[in-house]
Design a protein that fits this description.
Two copies of one chain form a homodimer.
Chain A: H1 9-16, E1 30-36, H2 39-49, H3 59-64, H4 74-78, H5 80-88, E2 93-101, E3 110-123, E4 126-137, E5 143-153
């Protein structure tokens, strides 16, 4: 669906130097968002996804699987990535996402989502941008989730959402 | 997190022949689920994910991005995969997922999620299973989303959820 060539970093950096004080996205830029998932979030996600896996609700099931407590759904944690991207670039179209679930996320954990632009290519007045995506526990910096995303952005002007860090 | 070797298909097939009439998962088995996403689902997902990208709500934003109508969030459609797996194997732990969003999903589209076991390995009385995962539009068979998932299953005995096809 996407061509596999991206603007090399040095080309992109030189292109963006002229607007270094603007809020134009360039390779290397990092977008962040913090979130603490509640038990209401877990229930709300189960209702909309129909995913009532007991691992997310039942202490005994969680312990049998080797966890301290019921887990927040990994795909709910993952939803931080398109949210971070689209809140900075409304109208962004998601093309792909890889997800590696590294460590459990529990209700009440303070999670920091970090999205970094790693490549960028202009096509037909839109921008195909690759991002590295990860979530860490805010205090311990333990990696809980990582991967890569690709999105088509309508432009490179970043909004600064009120919730961002 | 996961070792990279899986039981070769011929080994697995021979192991499972003795219980061919049971509901024990084997490589090649396919799990399915159909779902029609509603505008309430899209709103519910936005509430829990905080993803209010106008692409999912505003006709003009969707048209500007080249779509006929507002889109169902791709990550909501993706939630069919862990749901399909965990409804057949309660207690399943998600390890990874890749997602390629190929075509738009609109409210009212009849979507079929298809998950097929492609490799399987036993470790410490649990099973690491790789699945191919895809969603198609039920009537046209248009591919809307595909990728791969890896999950740790507590056992290989498949439940038959009432909603499965």
């Amino acid at each position: 669906m996407l061509a596999k060539t991206f603007v090399p970093r040095h080309v992109l950096v030189s292109r963006c130097f002229s607007s270094v004080n603007s809020k134009t996205l360039k390779v290397g830029d990092v977008l962040r968002e913090a979130r603490v998932f509640t038990s209401e979030d877990v229930k709300g996600y189960a209702e909309v996804s129909h995913d009532w896996n007991p691992l997310h609700f039942d202490q005994e099931s969680a312990r049998k699987a080797g966890f301290e407590n019921p887990l927040v759904h990994g795909m709910l944690v993952s939803s931080m990535f398109p949210h971070i991207i689209s809140s900075h670039f409304p109208g962004a179209v998601y093309v792909s996402q890889t997800l590696h679930f590294r460590s459990p996320v529990y209700v009440g954990d303070d999670i920091l989502g970090i999205v970094q632009a790693t490549a960028l290519r202009e096509t037909k007045n839109k921008y195909i941008v690759k991002f590295s995506t990860k979530c860490i526990k805010k205090h311990s910096e333990l990696l809980v989730l990582d991967g890569d995303a690709t999105a088509i952005l309508p432009n490179l002007e970043m909004l600064q959402p009120s919730h961002s860090e």
